[in-house]
Amino acid sequence: MTFADRTPLLEVRGLKKNFGRRTLFEIDQLALQAGEACLLSGRNGAGKTTLMRILAGLEPCDEGTLYYRGQPLRTGRRGCLGGRVIYLHQQPCLFDASVEKNLAFGLRHLSRQVAGLRVEQALAWSGLGHLAARNARTLSGGEKQRIALARAWVLDPELLLLDEPTANMDSEALEQTLFLVRRLINEGTAILLCCHDLRSEQRLVHRRLTLRDGTLREDALALTPMTPARGLPVDTTQPSFRQITEA
Fold first, then answer.
1. Which domains does the chain have, with CATH numbers?
2. Which of 51, 179, 220, 238 could form a disulfide bond with 229, CB atoms 3.0-4.6 angstroms apart?
3. How large a percentage of the chain has pLDDT more than 70?
4. Would you state the pLDDT for residue 75?
5. The dihedral sign for the CA sequence 168, 174, 177, 178
């Protein structure tokens, strides 16, 4: 069964977004499948961030309907997707607290023991264990982006919308960040990755989408393997989230 044969994880139909009298974009249909990785590109001002915020249920559209697993949703209503779809801005909003506490923030509904195990797992998954006690706001841009990815990962989302996650990074930080994105894809998380620089990111994805002149265009891409990032210790023996929560 191909991606096209499945009921989409997230879909929009008849989408239109205006800014004043100007139409930013009109998209007849966009479907994102469970486990699929897509690249969204386009010039500054094309509307990529606005589109991702609409898909996350954070911003309303002027026309159109958002569907989650075939069920219609009200866009612009915060919490309508209940953490199943998470949007990450290129400049992560981190709390003035340790890396460990930042990772634990979304796990307050779990018991202390389960939350603690999950945070330990996230630190190992992201290679951030040596920074666990550091204040998250004092770290580098690449380290902050890895914290944001790990903080999203602990919530076990079905779809991550990544808005310019590698912007202004040096080559090492870029490799480390993309390595974690690759891990998410390999673990079955659907990804919509927005970026300007296509040279590194396009090797991660199944499809490339381009937002240009108010319309969305698509090109098919082959998925190619990504080599592990240099200098990033990762413990691949860690159990899954479901194994921890069901223990």
1. 34-58+82-245 (3.40.50.300)
2. 179
3. 81
4. 58
5. positive
